[in-house]
Amino acid sequence: MNIEKYPSRLLENAVNEFSKLPGIGRKSALRLVLHLLRQEKEAAEALGNSLIQLRNEIKRCKVCYNLSDTDICRICASQARNRTVICVVENVRDVMLFENTNQYNGLYHVLGGVISPIDGIGPSDLEIECLIERSEDPEVKEIILALPATMEGDTTNFYIYRKLKEKSVKVTTLSRGVAVGDDLEYTDEITLGRSLVNRIPYENTPGL
Amino acid sequence: MNIEKYPSRLLENAVNEFSKLPGIGRKSALRLVLHLLRQEKEAAEALGNSLIQLRNEIKRCKVCYNLSDTDICRICASQARNRTVICVVENVRDVMLFENTNQYNGLYHVLGGVISPIDGIGPSDLEIECLIERSEDPEVKEIILALPATMEGDTTNFYIYRKLKEKSVKVTTLSRGVAVGDDLEYTDEITLGRSLVNRIPYENTPGL
Predict the structure, then answer these.
(1) For residues A177 and A19, what is the distance between their CA atoms, to the nearest angstrom?
(2) CB of B126 within 8 A of CB of B109?
(3) Whole-prediction pTM value?
(4) Percent of chain B predicted with pLDDT > 90
(5) What domains does chain B contain, in order, with CATH numbers?
């Protein structure tokens, strides 16, 4: 859509800002902005202010680097969590994913990415050094590497594993295998092969 | 996604506000908010402020009711436009669509909707009275009814047509017919029938 044809500079400006977001083109941006104009004044202000406030006030937890409203996040501050296990994840979204499984009660460590030379991300760009420091706490018994099952994730897993090898902490990783509910026909060969190699005693099936 | 699992109230608040927008679910909202957190502070502020400013400062043109930064919009204020024709459209987006065709140099009138009893929208909720007033200006020779080709659009077209019938102004409407580039096989019967009834002299084909 031709940029000159907006009836208002304010409208054009809002559309420009909206369409900078990933997955939102100029047409969607216009639709969203016109929607906001049809709402009460408060709706646009609430959205606008929530974004400004978020960006200015949100913090990173000083222990695990998860997003937090306070210096130390709720999970790290909680005495109800199992403080002997640290689950290493790529980003904040992954913490939420694991929390939503209701299967984990330990602590987290948010790396802030994975090693990816093609994107110019090396180990020093990630929160790896402080993970090593945390692993030296005698309270910590196990580090779970829960990075994505991609080449970058595997590389990062391996890098961290080598750093932790000499420490007294146990290093584990997520099991790979057939997804729950998946037909074997549609499972790729590598996953199927791994699920065979890493087979588990039938008695370990959860819910048995 | 469980609402309790957000690591931060600020994050949750921003996700809530984003997901109120049409077509944006909670997962998309989280993705957009995390994207903003990865950008410079200025990006979130620019988006937030553009929305607040838009909602507080944008005006409706006092003549045509299009969105405008000024009391009278650019199109209504322009002496380069053909001031004898007024194109009646449903909303602001339609003005932009017609402007983008580069085929129209007249004025507009934005109704702000179409008559739709099922949504509780009657003629008095639309800017119809002031359109009738505008049509009484001796400078105005033609009113183009360019509302959507829906039952509501047709009803509104007819309502306005009846109000304008006794005035000296000519009332026209958009031609209906086979879309440019469309195969006849995929054109619906009503459109195909109308395109036959309203056939035009071959010499009138644009670009001939």
Answers:
(1) 39
(2) no
(3) 0.77
(4) 66
(5) 3-57 (1.10.8.420), 80-174 (3.40.1360.10)
Task: Categorize the per-residue pLDDT at B4 as very low, low, confident or very high, splitting at 50, 70 and 90.
Answer: low
Residues of A in contact with B101 (CB under 8 A): none
> Measured between CA atoms, how close is A43 to chain B, in angstroms?
8
- Which residues are CB-contacts of B10 (< 8 A; sequence separation ≥ 6)? A50, A53, A54, A57, A58, A69
User: Which of A23, A35, A54 has the CB atom closest to B22's CB atom?
Assistant: A35
**Proportion of chain B in helix, strand, coil states, percent, rounded to 5:** 50, 10, 40
Q: Which residues of A, range 23-82, sit inside 8 Å of B by Cβ?
A: 23-24, 28, 30-37, 41, 43-58, 61, 66-69, 73-75
Q: What separation in angstroms does the CA of B183 have from each of B176, B179, B186, B192, B195?
A: 15, 9, 6, 11, 13
Q: Are A147 and A111 in contact (CB under 8 A)?
A: yes
**CB B17, CB A50: distance < 8 Å:** yes
Structure token pair of residue B46: 């620019």
